[in-house]
Amino acid sequence: MNAADYLKERVEDQIQWLSRKSGWNQRWFKRLRAVEIVMGCAIALLVGYADAHAWAKVAAGVLGVAVAAIGGLLALYRFQENWVEYRVTAESLKREKFLFLTQAPPYEAEARFQSLVARVEAILGAENAHWGEAAALKRSERAEPSGPPAHGET
User: For 65-93, how does the pLDDT look when each residue is reduced to its tens digit (9 = 90+)?
Assistant: First the structure.
């Protein structure tokens, strides 16, 4: 594989995928956070009417549950963290690409293509390792008992 093919098939492909995923996660994070904020403000308003109107108590309770659910979804799906991680990785790849194309250090040497491949794959490997660590953590959390051992267990 030559440098042009590698840049197109590996680097550009990854930059586009990461940019798309970063934008998607950013949009969902901002949407859910905005709804959470508006609902939280509405709860504060409704509590003021709770003594005079029974519906206000019910509405405040429903909004409270919705705010808690949104907070749980934000924690579960990690939209903000994914948005930032994807963006950082995409920008790191762009930086390497432009340093390579302009033959700026560390790409001024004879083995510049090999250096590009090594550095790009290190960036992508670190991203993949992060996801692998997160998956292993989730597996270990599921495997651990949720409470103290029952009588007779060790």
Answer: 999 999 999 999 999 999 999 999 999 99
- Residue 47: which of 35, 36, 60, 63 has the closest Cα? 60
Q: How far is CA 62 from the centre of its chain?
A: 28
What are the CA-CA distances from residue 71 to residues 31, 49, 61, 76, 134 (Å)? 12, 25, 15, 9, 20
DSSP letter for each residue of 38-85: HHHHHHHHHHHHTTT-HHHHHHHHHHHHHHHHHHHHHHHH-HHHHHHH
At residue 144, the pLDDT reads 59
Cα–Cα dist 99/117, whole Å: 13
pLDDT band at 145 (very low <50, low <70, confident <90, very high): low
Give the DSSP letter string of 93-139.
HHHHHHHHHTT-TTSSSTTHHHHHHHHHHHHHHHHHHHHHHHHHHHH
CA separation for the pair 145, 147 (Å, rounded): 6
